[in-house]
Amino acid sequence: MTDTSPSPRLTLPGLGLGCMALTEFYGKDSAHADPDAVIGRALDLGITLIDTADAYGPFRNEEAVGRALKGKRDKAILATKFGVDREAGNAAGLTGGLNGRPEFVKRACEASLKRLQTDVIDLYFMHRLDPTTPIEETTGALAELVQEGKVRHIGFCEISAATLRRAHAVHPVSALQSEYSLWHRDPEMHFEALNELGVSFVNYSPLGRGFLSGQIRSIDDLAEDDWRRHSPRFQGENFARNLAIVDAVQKVAQAKGCTLAQLALAWCRAAPASVTPLNGATTIAQLEENAAVLDLHLTAQDLAAIERAAPAEAFGGQSWPEGSVGARVDA
Fold this sequence. Notes:
α4 (102-116) crosses α5 (135-147). Helices cover 36% and strands 13% of the residues. An eight-stranded parallel beta barrel has the order 1-2-3-6-7-8-9-10, surrounded by five helices. It is an alpha/beta fold and 331 residues long.
């Protein structure tokens, strides 16, 4: 019998910190980041959801987060992920094996607990769906981790409403994490199910991997080793088309008296679901700018102006490089 009871509500802040860029993928921004300082300041600002994953590094990001939270663990809602096994794939790139087998789930959790220097993970996400393992088996393993006190809440990344319901029937799911921003709106089709089941929505890349900050004006603004150079949305005609849209949205931000990044984050928070955007700040200045969104309210007129400037299908190019693990979305 399917259990459709609401999930135990996990109260999340209005803004979270996505830690991936603090150690990898974003070229000079990652190289110059100070995880201790950024995470410490985030907690001071009330940005208590700290999101990492074992695949970032791999492993180095969790280790950095664990060090940064030493003595501050009780202030954070600590989220990490399993399931993208970069050791089984290409440990230097964006590909990896997907593994949701119960024995792997438990082994991954034990390893993450050690790297994070904690006894319990507040929110444990499956990073991507393993097409070879039924979601019910993976969820069953997660439920056992909850029963053992090693995990408080479970979540999934980039799964459909139908798959979410299957998982929720085994054990209440507290959060879904997916890409969502002005230039990627696919998750809106799942909001009704999230509200029905009492599942919170955590969205990564709310600033379109920095493009919606308005600070990237040319591909040459990105370091040679920045993975965004391989993203279709940052290339050729797509880049020019997307930049023109960003400039149009910038005018809306100016009229509102806020920065473009703040407007883009506020737009995510205005969605008809319980949404917590993950800002990926790598500096204190970026973090403080983004935190100001907690006091920014968008009116119906603001939202209409944003929609005119950036219609849902206006942006060019796919969000992820073809064949990358990030592109593996359960639609």
